[in-house]
Task: structure prediction
Amino acid sequence: MSIRQVQNVASLVSTVEALDGTAAVFPVWRSRIEDVLSMQNTLDIVNGTLPRPKEDSKSDSSVTRSTDYSKGYNPKEVVADWEALSELACSTIRLTLSRPLALRYRKTKPASRLFTTIVNAYEKNTRARRIRLHAAFWESKHDPNTPIALWIGVSLRASQAGQKTA
Result:
């Protein structure tokens, strides 16, 4: 059982330039918010690398929790802990948005969906996105156990971003 402590990043949130709806601010905002979320120990939830665990089984007492979070969180095994950390990450992200954007995204959950939605809105056709898609295309390998449509999807996204795929 891995217990995780969450760091208080309240003083750092004010140093993140608010995302105001312009693409010019987005690269700096993204870099700073990822740093803050990393220090907060919630970046893996936001990036989607730590998926929501399956529902807690009532018979397994080793993963049950009290509401005393001063001892830490166990988001790999306890759904309530994962949801609490996801909500914390959502709040942190929303605090770095301008008022209109914070209102627009106020009900978007979990944190991974909120972050992905914002990134997709501002990173449509930037050079950095094209480079990442290009790298993803050339580094990806088709798994024979998965549908070919997934492989074609990577090629399609790269071509829509202005990259040559052939």
About this structure: The chain has two domains: 10-123, 124-166.
